[in-house]
Fold:
Amino acid sequence: MTIPDEKNLVSKDGTAPLRFAYWVPNVSGGLVISKIPQRTSWDADYNRKLAQIAEKAGFDYALTQIRFTAGYGAEYQHESVAFSHALLAATTRLKVIAAILPGPWNPTLAAKQIATISQLTEGRIAVNIVSGWFSGEFRAIGEPWLDHDERYRRSEEFIRSLKGIWTQDNFTFRGDFYRYTNYTLKPKPAGALPEVFQGGSSRAARDMAARVSDWYFTNGNTPDGLRAQVEDIRAKAAQGDNSPKIGVNAFVIARDTEEEARSVLDDIVAQADPDAVKAFGHEVKNAGKASPEGEGNWAKSTFEDLVQYNDGFRSNLIGTPDQIAERILALKEAGADLILLAFLHFQEEVDYFGREVLPRVRALEAQRSARTTAAPTAAAA
Ligand SMILES: Cc1cc2nc3c(=O)[nH]c(=O)nc-3n(C[C@H](O)[C@H](O)[C@H](O)COP(=O)(O)O)c2cc1C
Structure:
């Protein structure tokens, strides 16, 4: 199948084509906490080739991960900003999102690093500001583990500082965590401002997205679960001048038959490392419980959900290319602007997704766009 021209995908109601991102496996063990054999590697050569395959397949973004210590199946972890630059150097169109954790990073260093990478890559770098879920990691590197909502208060100041430094000369800011006095960064990022993504679904995460983030990334979910979050964020955002776009996580198992795809999922879960999954579940649920509402990103996650780090099975992109394309459209209709994808065997499956699923998504988008634009004409006639 061929991919229709992007400009034909924008419907008259203003709906933009869905964007696609993939998780960069810069951490060992892949994106599932399972002993199932994976033809995915965390090394640089594998990842450079994967980035080239993804760019050719039609992906818009690659999302790196930041982890400072081992645990839950992730023994080795390449650093996200340096790794992002390596992927950008190996590609020409793909945007790479560098994960940044306030605490180990401060906005001064992050703004400077990202501005330089932006200059080196014609503005293809973006950032994902993460707020932390792994208290053991903070302890190991001597970083204070702030209360849940304090972590988000710090992240919000971090984002405000980044945007201030990138856009203003003589930037002055008086926060509780960060302070600037007449600070001028030169050079600033090339072209458009680096996009600021964030991860997390708690009340504090949604409020921060409504106020300052360009993109809100959330864990895998059903269309109804996603819609509830989107409505909440949009209602909050409408009170200010920010309008964040929405990205949702999903683990894709696309096979020629649904039975094949389901049996891969069964194998991943059957070979899950139960101790690692339970320990991961304990850590992330604790991190969320410390929020005032007592819930976080993983509040409703079952054992099976937790085998994929960010609840990617819940989005149910498991089946044939036709089924998956339909379900992706349902996520779009629930408010997603971007689908973030993980795979078992990244290189082969990103390629397959580009050939078999993406063209079906584009065809469905074009069909629905034609339907919405045809409807008013018919009514007028
Ligand atoms: C798509 C996505 C990517 C994330 N990437 C990272 C990461 O690379 N490193 C990290 O420490 N946390 C990462 N997180 C975790 C979040 O920043 C946040 O700490 C976590 O989701 C807890 O959110 P909560 O406040 O909703 O419970 C990510 C979250 C999402 C949804």
Notes: Residues 1-13 have pLDDT under 50 and may be disordered. The CA atoms of residues 176 and 365 lie 45 Å apart.
